UniProtKB/TrEMBL annotation, chain A:
Keyword presence, Phosphoprotein: no
Lineage: Eukaryota, Metazoa, Chordata, Craniata, Vertebrata
Stretches that traverse the bilayer: none
Protein name (record): Centromere protein L
Pfam name, any one: CENP-L
Database matches in InterPro entries: CENP-L
TrEMBL record, chain B:
Designated name of the protein: Centromere protein M
Keyword field: Centromere, Chromosome, Nucleus
Location(s) in or outside the cell: Chromosome, Centromere; Nucleus
A Pfam short name: CENP-M
Species name: Equus caballus
InterPro entries: Centromere_Cenp-M, P-loop_NTPase
Length: 346, 170
């Protein structure tokens, strides 16, 4: 789809460059159609992805401020663009959402034993959580319980946390108009009832749609390869894989743990192109693990379903749960998740 | 197992997910009786006498990389003349995206490499299975030469979609 400089470009390339010229200055809808058309090119090119590196923007992020994002299990959702969302109205949104939650709780829809009805909602911007300057700012929503005792006027404990972000979301950003804010990745930690309530409020207020983001085995093996490829000073956790064998009557789970340095050594032997990960390398990496396992246990892991991948960088479960362990590669992990979220929206 | 039915209708009752190839043979008789054989891999044992094979459908389960490997291995054992319209690929399991280990593009590329049609069908769903069975029987009839005026090679060129560029355009 690049502009054709050489005279011997094929008719198809010439047609697509003409198409591209036509779409400069087109409406968002036309841009969207063009991007969809681009994706359905019939000759599939194997994806190449960059190994997560410490990006320039990440240097500005204070590790203390984002420390609360690490070591927590987040449930992933993909979110369509928010209509008429404004970063200046965060305080107002806090009040509105707080009132909504109080009303819902009084309706008796989500009553938990011993729950404190004094809830405070805080919207805050998360600075630095973006891939490029074009990405919209990430923001955070927290539900805190207000302390009942008058003597304590400090903030109560955090009951629920959710944050919205967009890392390298260029493919989505160029197809939406000015009124929309694109934050396709939503991560939630806390009670499911709270997530549902907050989801409902956002859907009503900003005309968006949440859907749970599942990670299939194909993407999990990509994550395993990319995270193993990350350079780490010291490894905090073993590299572990979990497969689910579909057999009746009971499900059988196979867990395979490797020493992280061995995994890195295996990756280094497979890796050819510097700075990038290709489909062949991912397949080869996984095939090495499968054949090693087969040699010892005579089980074909490739016939089972990869359900969980856990490395020192992060761990991911197929149900859409993620835990990030290393702040250095936080942006890299989120970039891939954003890509999956955008793919699901489209 | 795929069972034969005298009314030339393939009834699929259950499919073994690890199997990756099935053969459809048809005798020259006008009774239009389709016989199908299910095989896990090729080559078939040569000790058994069997009727002429008219169509080979390779079933790839997108949930399992193992089935893809199996199909790739088996493809080496297929005689080259079969690829003139008598081979097809059937990808199953695309409906449950969260369970997929094999990317859709991988099978598309495989079918493209072997110049054979690729069909997608979720064999776990009853309705889709029945429809696909009817479609396969039709393909089988053409490949066996039971449809006058249409050969396997004609069918192949008809099934190749117009978006799909041929090798010369790449």
């Amino acid at each position: 789809m690049d502009s054709c400089d050489t005279p011997e470009s094929t008719p198809r390339q010439r047609a697509s460059s003409r198409l591209k010229d036509y779409f400069i200055g087109a409406t968002p809808l036309q841009k969207r159609l063009e991007s969809v058309r681009r994706q359905t090119s019939f000759v599939p090119t194997p994806p190449r992805r960059k190994i997560p590196q410490c990006s320039q923007l990440q240097e500005d992020v204070d590790p203390q401020k984002v420390a609360f994002l690490l070591h927590k299990q987040w449930t992933l959702y993909s979110l369509t663009p928010l209509y008429k969302f404004s970063y200046t109205n965060l305080k107002e949104y806090s009040k509105l959402l707080g009132a909504f939650i109080a009303a819902e709780k009084q309706k008796g829809l989500a009553v938990e034993v011993g729950e404190d009805f004094n809830i405070k909602v805080i919207f805050s911007a998360l600075l630095g959580m973006k891939g490029t300057q074009r990405d919209p700012e990430a923001f955070l929503v927290q539900i805190l319980s207000k302390s009942q005792l008058p003597s304590e006027n400090r903030e109560g404990k955090v009951l629920w946390t959710g944050w919205f972000c967009c890392i390298f979301g260029d493919s989505l950003l160029e197809t939406v108009s000015e009124d929309f804010t694109c934050l396709p990745l939503f991560l939630a930690n806390g009670a499911e009832t709270n997530t549902a309530m907050i989801g409902t409020w956002f859907q009503k207020t900003f005309d968006c749609y949440f859907s749970p983001l599942a990670i299939n085995a194909y993407n999990l093996s990509w994550m395993a390869a990319m995270w193993t490829a990350c350079k780490m000073d010291h490894y905090m956790a073993t590299t572990e894989f979990l497969w689910s064998v579909p057999c009746s009557p009971q499900r059988l789970d196979i867990s395979y743990a490797i020493h992280p340095e061995d995994a890195k050594a295996l990756w280094d032997s497979v890796h050819k192109t510097p700075g990038e990960v290709t489909q062949e390398e991912v397949d080869l990496f996984m095939d090495c693990l499968y054949s090693h396992f087969h040699r010892h246990f005579k089980i074909h892991l490739s016939a089972t379903r990869l359900v969980r991948v856990s490395t020192s960088v992060a761990s991911a479960h197929t149900d859409g749960k993620i835990k990030i362990l290393c702040h250095k590669y936080l942006i890299g992990v989120l970039a891939y998740l954003t890509e999956l979220a955008i793919f699901q929206i489209e | 197992m795929l069972k034969e039915d005298c009314a030339s209708e393939l009834k699929v009752s259950s499919v073994d997910w690890t199997s990756s190839a099935l053969h459809l043979c048809s005798p020259r008789s006008l009774a239009h009786e389709g016989i199908s054989h299910l095989a896990k891999s090729l080559p078939l044992p040569s000790s058994v006498t069997r009727p002429r094979i008219d169509l080979i459908m390779f079933v790839v389960n997108l949930h399992s990389k193992y089935s893809l490997r199996n199909v790739e291995e088996s493809l080496h054992h297929v005689d080259a003349t079969f690829f003139l319209g008598k081979v097809g690929f059937l990808a199953t399991g695309a409906g449950r995206e969260s369970h997929c280990s094999v990317h859709r593009n991988t099978v598309v590329k495989l079918a493209h490499t072997y110049r054979s049609p690729l069909l997608f069908c979720d064999l776990e769903v009853e309705g889709f299975r029945a429809t696909m069975a009817q479609r396969l029987v039709r393909m089988l009839q053409i490949c066996a030469g039971h449809v006058p005026g249409l050969s396997a090679l004609n069918l192949l060129s008809l099934l190749r979609s117009s978006e799909n560029p041929s090798l010369e355009d790449l």
